[in-house]
Every structure is written in C-alpha cells, then in structure tokens.
C-alpha cells in the first residue's frame, strides 16, 4: 500500500484549496495513491489495488500516470497516513481531524480504517468528514475512496464530458473520480465550519454568517477583525448562542463619501479586505483567516452596473480544460496563469463554461481583478433525477462561491441543455424558473441567467449566442436597438426563441457566445464555427468579429469563444499549451477597442 509521510503543505499564495477559510496548518494528500478500476459492487477489503495514480488527476488523463481512454464506470483509491504525521500536524487529544475533498466525480463513498465516514453525490461540489472516531490508536490509518461515474448517464451533470467512447464535436474526454485537492485539517472541538461574507456599500456595512461545528458553551464568543494593508477597519465581538451566527459590522472609513471608492473591488483596482475570525469557548479556540471584496453588481435598464457605474463586460469563454489533466488543473500555478492570460488578452471577464471551477481559480480572479460568470455543468436529459441533481448541486456551488467578489453573475443553465423542449414543456420551464428563483433566494446580490443563449424564462440579462462569421453581418444585426428588440421578441440566430414566458422588458443585452474561429492545424483535423487557413487570416477574422461586437451600441457586453484550443475544438485564441496563435497585443487592442 502507498504510505507517504504527510508534509505540512506550503504557505505559498494561492495553494490552499479553500482560500476563504484558512487555518495555519493543513496536510496535503495529493500525490501517489493505490488505484483500481472496476469492481463496482465490491467491499473495500476485497478490491485488488494493482495500479498507482497521481491524485488529483483523473485516470483518463496522462498526468495521472494512467491515460485510460475507454469508458470508466467505477474507480477505487487507497492510501495510508501515520499517527506521527497527525501529531506533527497538531492533532491533540481534544482536537478533531477533518478529511476534505474538493470534488469527486460523481458518486463517492469514503472509508477510514473500514469505517464509512462520508457519502456524496455531485461531481463539482466539495464535501468533508470528521474522521476522528475512525482513527487507530497506533499504526497507520487507511483511506479508501470509491467513485462511481456512469459515462452514459445523461441525467447527471456532465457538462462537456462526452457520453460516446471517443470525443466528438464540442465534447471532450471524461473526468472520473477525484479531480480536485484532498487534504487533512486539524480543528479544535468547537470550530468554524463555514463563512459567508456580504457587503452593502451605501450603509458601509459588512455581514458575516458563520456555521459552527461542535459544542457551544455559555462562554462561546465570535471575534472578527477586518484589515486593509494593516489598517484596522472594524472589529466586533459577539456572543454565540447557536450553530449559525451572524456578525454585523460598520466600516467607519466608508462613511466618508469622498473616499469610499478607494476600498471598492473592481478589475482595475481589485482591493480585498483581510479578515481574522476567532471562535473561543471555555476550553478551546479556533482562528481562521479569510478575505472579501466590497462591491455591488446589478442589471438596471439596459446597463450592467459594477459599484453603481455602467461597465461593459469584455469576456472570453474559458473551458478551463488542459490536455494533460483534463478538468483538473495541472497545478495551482496553472490556475493563476489562466487568469493572467485572460487579463493580458484585454478581457475583464471570464465565462467558465459548463464547469464549476476550482476555488483557487476564483482566488486569483479576486486577487488579480477578473470578473467571472459562475456556471455549472448541465445534464443532457430532463427527468426527475436530473432536475433534483441540478438543484442540489447548484445550491451547494452557490454556497461555496458566494463570497468571491469576482463572481458577478450566476448561470445555472446553458442553451437549454437538459431542458431541450423548454419552449413546449411547462415542466422544463418550471425547472428553469425555479432554479433561478432559488439562486436569488440564496444570493439576492447578483443577476441570474435562467438559460444562457436562448429560451430565457426569468433572466436578469438577455444573452444571445451567434456564430455568424462575417463581422459586417454581426455589426448590422446588433447595430440598432430596434433590430435587437425584434430578435428578443422573436427568434435568434440559432433558430431558437430568445424568450419563452419571460418578461420582455428592458434589460441589458449581451452577446455571450460568438466567434469560434478555428485555425486549421497541420494535420487538417479541426473543429470550429468557421476556419482560417493562416495565422494572419485567423487574426483578421477574430479581431474583426471582436470589433464588431464591441462597436454594437445596444450590447452591454460580449463573450468571445474561446480562450484555448480544447481537444478537437481548435477555435481558441491560444493553443492548448497556452501559447498564442497571433500576437497577444493584436487581440488586446481589438478587445479594448483600440
């Protein structure tokens, strides 16, 4: 069995898998694990682990050390850790040991020393388990994970993972099992389990909602301090009376209307507020570091507002898929580089497509100033199981990401995936409306897109997908308010209704998919919405389309498809190794309208 000393993970910025709830010490479990394919009905003790896999990379990827290309239904993982490593990590007699998983696709069961400690459904959402009760007094402890992910099940949230054996058209190799970090964390017997931040600019207010795990005694207190560049902005101490507590603070500095914009978050000035949260009882104390941004977003009339000022969204569609590691990022540094590349190309927004991205990507978007449309993978079928799965996993993702200032829009459905007959089926329209309303119930501070691209039921922004290849046609199609309004009241470029049972009132209009120009590779095998034969032709086509969208006065924003080549999709601005096809400066000038 694979038994590796557990290093205390480095404090390198951006490495922590949960960047808005950090403790001083955590133990990284990524690396070599024992691995087995198949045996979907086996007991953990009966599985023959005959391979080694590098976690967190999926077995279909070469980064995992396996590169399995066929359909995989069932995977098993195993590794051990020793008591001495836990003691080095700070586990005391009074402490608790938590085992965290960033994401496991799709249905996971976890055992520690043969004791079931967790079950979870949902391939994008995190889960954790208190494994203290399952630890051995002496010797090594064994973790076993079983993941089931039927590649032909179209009622679960698949996103861009192909249901056919080999990738085709716009679908890619699958990602099965563990694909985000796994880590151990020692906490006191009473600890902070979750944090949610919200801000209100006019009142100079900040609200923190805290979920607490463990016993609460009559001397349990919550102590919160807020800082910016070492300056104390606010401090409060609140008596804790239940597992769910709130702390409301006022930032006196923000009451000065002549300077309040200095602390607001924006792409140009991605200011973040640091926070220290302490939870104290008679016999224990917990301390975590966090952060948030002060900013507001809204769709008002035809304008999209950031901090109550109109802003044009200049976005790129990002699949965030890597050839060597698939949906898993090759490294924490690769997530930072993805954000940097998007900003270097001139875009101020990313639409991460059919994927809930690793929180470390959102950390760098917060830190470096990139607005994000938060999306989820969708199912392909409509049935009770698909509807329930979407609602359950989406609620978990909204909860996970709601405190990130970079997230400005929620997108639970795309192009009627999983609701293909929404124009004619009231049940499918009901799902679109209900998931949008539930999103607003969980977070009333951001616009919601009920179905991106067409067939909107209850969207705060009109979004349209249009892969017209001629810049002149695109410019004319979106060049007047009358033309755009006629489209909203009728059919879009893809032949689908733009709205079904929706309020056709005045809202921001955005072209949220367009472009898709492919540069034909040397092997002649390409996929795109139109094809260029040379880099020069590619640059001219791309820049012409971007300038046409940018020059369309009725549009409040645009999203070019797409950032990188992905598998057989060769329509990226960058190759799949993230090198540019044409000079970045050329693309940047077109994006910025220079």
What is the overall silhouette? globular
Terminal Cα span: 59 Å
Percent helix, as a range, is 10-25%
What's the total number of strands?
31
Structural Rg? 24 Å
Q: What percent of residues are in strands?
A: 25-35%
The main β sheet shows up as:
7 strands, parallel
Which structural category fits the helices and strands? alpha+beta
Could you explain the architecture of this structure?
- With 594 residues, the protein is α+β, with helices and mostly antiparallel strands.
- 17% of the residues lie in helices and 30% in strands.
- It has nine helices and 31 strands.
- The strands form eight sheets. Strands 26-25-24-23-31-28-27 form a seven-stranded parallel β-sheet. A six-stranded antiparallel β-sheet has the order 3-2-4-10-7-8.
- Helix 2 crosses helix 3, helix 4 runs parallel beside helix 5 and helix 6 runs parallel beside helix 8.
- The chain is globular.
Compile the SSE list and pairings.
Blueprint lengths: L26 E2 L2 E7 L13 E5 L18 E9 H6 L7 E6 L2 E2 L1 E6 L2 E7 L5 E4 L9 E9 L28 E2 L3 E6 L3 E10 L4 E9 L7 E8 L2 E9 L4 E7 L22 E8 L4 E8 L4 E4 L2 E4 L2 E2 L2 E6 L13 H13 L4 E4 L6 H10 L2 E5 L8 H18 L5 E5 L14 H17 L19 E4 L5 H7 L3 H8 L20 E7 L1 E3 L10 E3 L2 H16 L4 E7 L22 H8 L3
Parallel strand pairs: 23-24, 23-31, 24-25, 25-26, 27-28, 28-31, 29-30
Antiparallel strand pairs: 1-12, 2-3, 2-4, 4-10, 5-9, 5-12, 6-11, 7-8, 7-10, 13-14, 14-17, 15-16, 15-18, 18-19, 20-21, 21-22
Helix pairs in contact: 2-3, 4-5, 6-8, 8-9
């Amino acid at each position: 069995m694979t038994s590796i000393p557990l290093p205390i993970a480095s404090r390198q910025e951006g490495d922590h898998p949960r960047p808005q709830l950090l403790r001083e010490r955590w133990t990284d479990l990524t690396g070599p694990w024992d691995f087995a394919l198949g045996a979907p009905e086996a007991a953990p003790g009966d599985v023959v682990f005959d391979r080694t896999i590098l976690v967190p990379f999926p077995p279909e990827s070469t980064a995992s050390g396996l590169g399995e290309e066929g359909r995989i239904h069932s995977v098993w993982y195993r590794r051990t850790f020793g008591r001495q490593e836990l003691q080095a990590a700070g586990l005391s007699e009074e402490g608790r040991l938590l085992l965290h998983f960033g994401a496991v696709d799709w249905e996971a069961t976890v055992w520690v020393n043969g004791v079931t400690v967790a079950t979870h459904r949902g391939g994008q959402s995190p889960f954790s388990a208190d494994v203290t009760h399952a630890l051995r007094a002496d010797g090594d402890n064994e973790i076993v994970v079983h993941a089931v992910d039927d590649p032909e099940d179209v009622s679960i949230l698949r996103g861009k993972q192909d249901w056919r054996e080999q990738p085709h058209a716009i679908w890619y190799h699958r990602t099965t099992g563990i694909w985000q970090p796994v880590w151990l964390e020692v906490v006191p017997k009473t600890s902070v389990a979750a944090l949610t931040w919200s801000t209100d600019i006019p009142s100079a207010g900040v609200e923190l909602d805290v979920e607490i795990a463990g016993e609460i005694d009559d001397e349990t207190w919550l102590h919160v301090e807020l800082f910016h560049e070492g300056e104390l902005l606010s401090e409060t101490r609140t008596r804790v009376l239940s597992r769910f507590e709130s702390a409301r603070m006022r930032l006196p500095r923000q009451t000065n209307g002549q300077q309040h914009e200095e602390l607001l978050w924006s792409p140009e000035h991605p200011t973040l507020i640091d926070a220290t949260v302490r939870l104290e009882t008679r016999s224990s104390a917990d301390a975590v570091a966090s952060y948030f941004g002060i900013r507001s977003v809204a769709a008002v009339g035809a304008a999209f507002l950031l901090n109550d000022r109109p802003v044009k969204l200049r976005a790129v569609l990002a699949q965030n898929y890597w050839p060597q590691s698939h949906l898993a990022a090759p490294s924490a540094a690769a997530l930072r580089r993805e954000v940097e590349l998007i900003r270097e190309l001139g875009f101020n927004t990313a639409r991460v497509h059919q994927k809930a991205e690793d929180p470390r990507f959102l950390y760098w978007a917060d830190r470096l100033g990139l607005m994000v449309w938060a999306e989820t993978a969708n199912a392909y079928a409509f049935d009770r199981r698909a509807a329930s799965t979407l609602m359950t996993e989406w609620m978990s993702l909204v909860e996970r990401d709601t405190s990130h200032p970079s997230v400005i829009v929620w997108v639970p459905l795309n192009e009627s995936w999983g609701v293909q007959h929404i124009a004619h089926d009231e049940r499918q329209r009901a799902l679109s409306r209900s998931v949008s309303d539930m999103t607003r119930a969980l977070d009333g501070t951001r616009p919601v897109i009920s179905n991106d691209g067409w067939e909107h039921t209850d969207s705060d922004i009109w979004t349209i997908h249009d892969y017209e290849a001629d810049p002149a046609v695109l410019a004319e199609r979106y060049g007047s308010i009358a033309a755009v309004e006629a489209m909203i009241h009728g059919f879009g470029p893809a032949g689908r209704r733009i709205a079904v049972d929706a309020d056709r009132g005045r809202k921001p209009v955005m072209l949220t998919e367009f472009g898709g120009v492919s540069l034909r590779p040397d092997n002649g095998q390409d996929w795109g919405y139109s094809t260029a034969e040379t880099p020069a032709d590619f640059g001219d086509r791309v820049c012409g389309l971007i300038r046409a969208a940018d020059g369309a006065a009725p549009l409040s924003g645009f999203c070019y498809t797409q950032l990188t080549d992905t598998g057989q999709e060769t329509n990226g601005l960058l190759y799949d190794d993230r090198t540019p096809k044409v000079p970045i400066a050329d693309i940047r000038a077109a994006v910025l309208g220079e």
